[in-house]
């Protein structure tokens, strides 16, 4: 591995992130808030650290795959730590390091779990910063950075493969990885602008519209109000949120293809998108039927049911009511829908629909093999045969996912007095990058102990990096020449 270039690239990425910290400082100046010093100081510390790591070293023309994994993990770890600085430096928050790190990692991994309360009274610069972190983490700041790495004499394909979510990571939208990264970010930025405009036209103030567009397109779920989108009590705003959550849960590579070919019908030809929409529709019908049969304190159970189905199933995490207080069957169905999550290549969390399809197809194939032991039953997606290596990767991911999930649930119950529902939903909400859970974590995570929050931070990072990107660093083989 090229440790000098790993250090250099990590430094460049931190330097880019330091520039992002100037933006909330500008917001603080506009609103004449005392947080301006905290953001400027955090930005300078991050900039100095990034420059120290990026001091010109021996140039390497390209990164190996192992280098890409190491840079991705180092950068996400560093981003969460440096991102916590403003939370620590703002005196009015009066929080400790673990809480600051929890909030930072929750934002950058687009989890949306929070330890902060009284959001309506917080400085606007801090609220903007939380949403900005989610927006940067949504598509992955690393994908943005690879657009400039070729100018520095370093290829970025390995970074893109390590960071990009999904089961298959070798597909490029354009011949050059630089153009791939640019294409993804143009789409991402365009959706964000469209979402902010739609929110504003639906009745949100400009500041709220911008912030919520960041967290909606990133499928992060942070809000500027304690009551989340329920604060606005507007069907129009909820409709805008549902539309853009739905769009953001679809593969951004597919968005690019649809845009370039100007053919919206391609969405319905994509097998993963069809499964994604089918699952959302099925869950939505079940939730609405449950709420109609067991009415909740709401004027429209259908409206509440559809909104929360899309919000929770896409792992966004917006709420308009406390869904944890719904009939247990509805709350559990929503939580399990989040385990499936959105499409590969989207900003959603969860296992991803393509893996769900591969796992179910493999299960059906094993049943056929029991009936016809000598039969050959290839798994196909969209008429194309899926290599066994891809199927094995999906099963390997699922096995690791389940094992880590159960170990973390057991760990939370061992180091705290949390009940099973709280521990189960807290780990599920964090490893799926969802945010709200059940029990004690239905509203926020402030009451949890520091050891529990530390375990949940690890769950967030594992979920964002899809487990293997981090686990591969723990194998002795990875470090051998």
Would you write up a description of this structure?
The chain is mainly α and about 475 residues long. The protein is about 65% helix and about 0% strand. The protein contains 23 helices and two strands. Strands 1-2 form a two-stranded antiparallel ribbon. α2 runs antiparallel to α7, α6 packs across α7 and α10 packs antiparallel against α12. The longest helix is centred in the last third of the chain and has 28 residues.
Topology overview:
Blueprint: H1 3-20, H2 22-30, H3 36-53, H4 65-83, H5 85-89, H6 97-108, H7 124-139, H8 141-145, H9 157-163, H10 177-202, H11 206-217, H12 235-248, H13 252-261, H14 266-269, H15 271-293, H16 301-313, H17 328-340, H18 353-371, E1 380-381, E2 384-385, H19 388-415, H20 420-431, H21 450-464, H22 468-471, H23 476-479
Antiparallel strand pairs: 1-2
Helix pairs in contact: 1-3, 1-4, 2-3, 2-7, 4-6, 4-9, 6-7, 6-21, 7-11, 10-11, 10-12, 10-13, 12-16, 15-16, 15-17, 16-17, 18-19, 19-20, 19-21, 20-21
Order of helix and strand elements from N to C terminus: HHHHHHHHHHHHHHHHHHEEHHHHH
Secondary structure tally, helices: 23
Number of strands: 2
Query: What would you call the structural class?
Result: mainly alpha
Q: CA-to-CA gap between the ends?
A: 8 Å
- Rg of Cα set: 22 Å
Residue share in β-strands: under 5%
- What overall form do the CA principal axes indicate? globular
List low-confidence stretches: none
Mean pLDDT: 88
Largest sheet, spatial ordering of strands? 1-2
Helicity level, as a percent range?
A: 55-70%
Q: Biggest sheet, in brief?
A: 2 strands, antiparallel
